Structures are given as C-alpha cells and as structure tokens.
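Hi V.,

You were right to ask for the full record rather than a summary. Here it is.
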Amino acid sequence: MVPASTRHNLLVAMWNLRAFADLTRHEPKILMTSDTLERLATDGSDRMSKFVLPAIRANSAAGRPVRWGGAAVACWKRCYENENGTGARIGFIDAFADELRSRANVPDDLEFLRQDAIFGDIISDAAFVAAYRSALQVLRTDPVSHGIERLSAG
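Predicted structure:
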C-alpha cells in the first residue's frame, strides 16, 4: 500500500506529459484532481457509477467521442486483471472487488461490463464498447505509458 501522505495526480500517472498537456488545455479543472493511490483503489465501483459512467453516457448521447471513457474503464479492468505494470496485485477495497476480479479474468472482455449494478446498460452503447475494446487491445500490447501515448494519438 502507498502511504496516505504520498499524493499523486491520477492523470499524470496515466498519461504522458504531452497527452496531459493536451487534455488540460481543454479541461483545466483536471489540474486540481489529486488523490492518494490508496483512496483511488477504494470504492471505485461507487465512483465509476456516479462520475465516470454518467459522463460517458452524456458524451455518447451528444455524439461526442467516448475514447477516454473506454480507456478509463479498460484501465480499471486491467488493474482487476492484476496487470498494473509492476506485477504487484492491487488491493481493492470495494464491495464488488471479488466479483470484478472474477469477471475481469475471463476470456470474454465484455463480461466485466455485465456487472449491472455498476455498469447498467453501458454494454449496449456500441461506441463505448468499441472504445473499451480498442483501449484494452492497446493496453495489452504496450506498457501503460506507451499505451496511453498511442491512445492519445487517436
């Protein structure tokens, strides 16, 4: 576990500097997003369903890209697959942790999205599913830092 005093900007950890600069140019409030890794691994299913998925749905309904939403969910799935780039297992503190780990480690990548209490009907959104699958393919091919760079390039 990372000590609570160790602060990390989640986006800096996920994106390289160029991609981060591109993102913050369009979303400057993101610069204020900072949290401990321990807290980020706590109750992610609650945060996913309250914050991330509604933004994905709104973007999709408005015809805006959902590439980064798909990438965020794909990164979360990869962590539940025990693939965080270090080989160390992440200790999630989440009511759905056991179920999500089980769903993440089956051959069908869509099984992770079939956890209805978290994901609802997001699996019926073709644009999101395509972005999610594409991000998973990139993240499985390249180390996270290179994968995020590839996703940033489009």
